[in-house]
Amino acid sequence: MTTQNQVKRNLTSPEAILYIRSILDGNKGILRTELADQLCEHYGFYDPRGVPQRCSCLKALCKLERLGHIVLPVSHKKSGRASPKRLPEAVPATLDVPATAGDVRGLKITLVDTDEYMRIWNEMMSREHPQGAGPLVGRQLRYLIESDHGFLGGLAFSSSALQLEDRDKWIGWDVEMRRAHLHRVIAMSRFLIRPQVHCQNLASLLLGQILREVSSDFENRYSLRPWLVESFVDINSFSGTCYRAANWVRVGQTKGRGRQGKDRKMAVTVKDIYLYPLEKDFRSKLGLPPDSGPVALEITAGLSEETWAEKEFGGAPLGDKRLSDRLVECAEAKAKIPDRAFSGVAKGDWPAVKGYYRLIDHADETAVTMDNILKPHRERTIRRMMAQKTVLCIQDGTSLDYSSLSQCEGLGVMGSNQTGAQSMGLHLHSTLVVTSDGLPLGVLRAECQAREAKSEEDKRPIATIPIEEKKTFSWVLSLRDCMEVSRKMPHTQVISVTDREADFYELFDEHRKNPCVDLLVRAKHNRYIKGGDKLFAAVKESPECGWLSIPVNRQSARPKRSKQKARPKRSGRMAEVSLRYIPVELRSTAGDDVNNPPITLTIVHVVEDNPPEGEKGIEWFLLTTVDVQSAEDAEKCLRWYCKRWRIEDWHRVLKSGCRIEDAAHKTAERLKRSIAINLVIAWRIMLMTLLGRETPELPAEVLFSDIEIEVLNSFAKKKAKAA
């Protein structure tokens, strides 16, 4: 059986209902099981072993009766569930279990295939597992975990969940494909290590071992080889560490409705979904394209002129497929002339112009939002991250000035001049992900805020205002987003890189609560550290650990603006700097070490002792949660921080190349939609530019269409002749 029999679907068709009625009318004394067997023979409902699928037929018949389509014979089966066979007493407790898994003697996983083992398994699960012994659903396998120290626990596998949005999205199949191949997914529905067993690494060791055995055992019993196994972790009680250690992939969360939750009520707790591919090529066996689902993507995948817009915007959840298709068309056209308004991009194609403005001018409460426009790009950004060993999630903000749009609704106050005149606009806070070499992987998160000036009636001291009400909370939200994404890529080191505005205690405290993403922050405040010393003085007095050359990016001059200081022009150069680092304990600004204990960090100090004449030497203090044990580690942190300027370059492309501050719409929400499209266009422009500079050997087909390559070749030949 290569595809799964659709028993319920086939029996609920009008033709099948008429056939069932004819059998019932012609056989008044027929039993339910006899009816089910007759239907199995007629429709070919047999499992891979050739056994009739009687239970599935009976279930479908009962549903037809509940819907009023048929009247079944009276059931002779006793109502209620049968109690599982159990031992007369509890399973004996374990004895002298070692503290580490490698020291456990006689460890083995035994398939439950005898009545004695079944009673032991039922007794243990009934007493010691939160969900008890069952019943389990569909095809089932049970295992006992044995050792010289006694029974350590047990496992069970059964049929998978009928529908899981996050799982199905990760696999990449549609409804019809899921119905046809769901039997290839099995669920690890029980995993118990007995409460009295405390043995380090035992859980991940057992998970790895059972995955090497379950495929063959399942095939031997049911003549069907599974391709994927799923499991669920109750996040209120467990963290899923053992699953990640055994290379399972967290793909999302359940909705909390349970297997039969058709009323869409939260009947059970929300759980994390973990998957493990038993067959590495399961997608090709399903007939899916190689890049289906959230598999890791190379940085150059799908960048060509012909495909990039469909890849980065296709399928955006805008409430109507036609809107998603229009988004792709508009983005593809805009990318060809990014510095023009769409009316100039369309070159007289007024239906295209109308289509663009219908997309942008949707009512503010529709699904056409900044987040939804960016969602396909975000998903591909995550997949590009998965292909890297280390990624830098660079956070930064920039102001977008729309003061000229006096009639635009929903803008915020960006600042005021000496006369009190206010400039209006939006504040863009985003996370741009780059490789450790600085190649941009995509925009992970972006939000546009219409900030309001603090009310004159609000007299609260800044220290008493909750972090959620402060502008700096955007940095915390972006860090939380990085943490959530990092759970999908256990083999990728994720580092959040920020400038001085993110130097506040709450951000480091957020990392302490969930240290799955490292922080690299340029220090702004010369605080007192534990011991009474000043932070900057303490690291300056430490011995040098090395000298190195680092690039210093050029910097354009900036006049004084509201609360921003004037900035002088700076040319790009290579700077010779000295390097120092020391561990420090960062104290809360509240000075409450009981409720806000000190946070252990490393501070890396970089100083240019001999800058060029007329130039101000650079001096950076970098606070990091990265484990720094050597000068090489400190240098690595420094070079990662040097990549922070990529987001400044990206802002420059947005404002100068895509001219997003020239957009003109009636509401801030419409401006955000236009900005969202340009964020991705600016990313692609920047990536193509850097790929051309840093990887000139890259095949032209990666970035250009055939016709573009032909034109470029002709142009090159013409230039060669002229020379």
Q: How far from one another are the termini?
A: 68 Å
Oligomeric state of this protein: single chain
Number of extended strands: 17
Unreliably modeled segments: none
Could you walk me through the main structural features you see in this protein, from its secondary elements to its overall organization?
The chain has helices at 7-11, 14-26, 32-43, 54-66, 115-128, 165-171, 175-181, 202-222, 241-245, 282-286, 308-313, 321-336, 342-346, 350-360, 370-386, 473-486, 505-513, 535-540, 631-642, 645-657, 668-694, 706-722, and strands at residues 108-111, 141-146, 153-159, 185-193, 228-234, 249-253, 271-277, 390-401, 412-416, 422-435, 440-449, 493-498, 518-522, 546-552, 573-586, 599-607, 619-624. Helix content is 35%, strand content 18%. The chain is built from 22 helices and 17 strands. The radius of gyration is 31 Å and the shape is globular. The chain starts with 6 loop residues before the first helix and ends with a helix. The longest helix is centred in the last third of the chain and has 27 residues, at 668-694. Strands 8, 9, 10, 11, 12, 13, 14, 15, 16 and 17 form a 10-stranded mixed beta sheet that branches. The mean pLDDT is 88. By secondary structure, the chain is an alpha+beta fold.
Give a quick precis of the structure.
The chain is 35% helix and 18% strand. With 723 residues, it is of the alpha+beta class. The protein is globular.
Structural features:
alpha+beta; 723 residues; 22 helices; 35% helix; 17 strands
List the helices and strands and how they pair.
Elements (H helix, E strand, L loop, with lengths): L6 H5 L2 H13 L5 H12 L10 H13 L41 E4 L3 H14 L12 E6 L6 E7 L5 H7 L3 H7 L3 E9 L8 H21 L5 E7 L6 H5 L3 E5 L17 E7 L4 H5 L21 H6 L7 H16 L5 H5 L3 H11 L9 H17 L3 E12 L10 E5 L5 E14 L4 E10 L23 H14 L6 E6 L6 H9 L4 E5 L12 H6 L5 E7 L20 E14 L12 E9 L11 E6 L6 H12 L2 H13 L10 H27 L11 H17 L1
Parallel strand pairs: 4-5, 8-12, 12-13
Antiparallel strand pairs: 1-2, 2-3, 3-4, 5-7, 6-7, 8-10, 9-10, 10-11, 13-17, 14-15, 15-16, 16-17
Helix pairs in contact: 3-4, 12-14, 12-21, 15-21, 16-17, 20-21
